[in-house]
Amino acid sequence: MKKMQKALALGSVAAMALMGTAATLSADEDADLIINGDMEMIVRTEAPDHLDGHLNMIYSGWTFRSDETQAMQMDDFDNPAMLFVEQGIEIFNTAMGTEGNSCATCHETPENLSEVRAVYPQWDEERGEVQTITMQINECVTERMGAEALGWSSRDMVNLEALLASVGRGTVVNVAIDGPARETWEMGREIYYTEYGILEMSCATCHEQNYGNYIRADHLSQGQINGFPTYRLKNARLNSTHSRFRGCIRDTRAETFAEGSPEFIALELYVASRGNGLTVEGPSVRN
Amino acid sequence: MADNVTPRVRVPREASAGDVVSIRTLISHPMESGQRRDGDGNVIPRSIINRFTCDFNGENVIDVTIEPAVSTNPYFQFSAVVNETGTFNFTWYDDDGSVYEDTADITVA
Amino acid sequence: MEMNRRQFVGTGVGAAAAITLLPSVATAQDVDAAINAFTGGADTSSDGITLIAPEIAENGNTVPIEVDAPGAEAIILLAAGNPSPDVATFNFGPAAGAQAASTRIRLAGEQDVIAIARMPDGTFLRAQQEVKVTIGGCGG
After folding, report:
1. Does C134 touch chain A (CB under 8 A)?
2. Which of the 8 DSSP states describes residue C107?
3. What ipTM did this prediction achieve?
4. Structural contact between residues A111 and A100, judged by C-beta atoms closer than 8 angstroms
């Protein structure tokens, strides 16, 4: 994977100051991810056409992690995120709200939803907007169950998302970007390439131009979200996609968009589409 | 009791007499170290699991004294020798006096 | 605007630190005291004990550690550079299949991890390894 060790090519002086510290941590970038000895993931593949050659190959964030961190995702018992999948199963089977329904009332088992994670966010014809999986869950919670919407990154919501990811593991991410979703996708692309904050960094500064390099001592990934929600060693809990987006933009020393904002919904669609061809591998383990 | 504590254990279902079997345990717990301050500068009080034990048919396998330096969601892997069919008992002791328990059966041929 | 790396690190720490660590680190005396509490001041030898830790931990909050000392009654695990050096003590019972255990621990920066085993004959074995801890670039 020599392409990943690229020369530093940065647009901003501020970003230049951040990057290029000596690489001390070596990850096995050529490793293959097989979970529980039998569930084979696609962690590297050709970039989708709509990236117009900005990337030749796309890589799961798993390939950028250290051996120890990689190992934690290779077995469901060693993956602490699976604790929260179990809590997600409990929520799935528990009726909430005025209608007396649980997720199981309609969907019976989580496995019946195994195709869902790979195709979200997607256009919702009825509502006339792009829906993320979080929004779809809340549509069920409020309309079919008659309960209060769950907070965007609340524990119950992220646990349910981890459950839906876990049953979708191995399905190939295939987010639609054409038709009515196109406008939102283009807005997401615009945000992806916009420089934010005092440091004047865009998503692309780190995750397109410098993946494989180091930011301080942190090995930069392509910022793929096929592994979300993700259990971070840093905070020892599940992290949602939008909380990661917030963290990234905050780290550029900018005011961030809110979780669930139109900007982050568009960005989620766009970033998800950059991973078309990788497999769903959440809940993943990252540093 | 800490919120939403879920224990998980993994033990083989079957073994031969005299086998050494690998055991893994995980429990969801914040393991608040007592070393951190909140946003207002106040020390967040320590709240950890301070002891973990595993017994097989009443005989001790391992007894761990745990300090705040053990990570959130404590994980332990160790092994036991099994000579007969029986039950593993797992017990986690919380600073606040709560006790969390789990069991796993193994058939020994 | 121009900003050098040191300035950036400083602002990063300030802005990201909604929750901060207390800045104390165990002294050499603290570490010696923790060791003596376990050994009673006895000498240690280095054969017959294995400590497996990553050379570089990707995050200090969750560092996988494995200790193994065949025949030991107990193994104590210490982190010499933490606010308090004690990490865990593994006491092995009669049904133990091996005197070995793995866990995940917190390391407050680069430091030595120490394992000491107490043997049934009253002798002690010691293993030690330095673990570097990565300081991440992206706070959250």
Report:
1. yes
2. -
3. 0.94
4. no
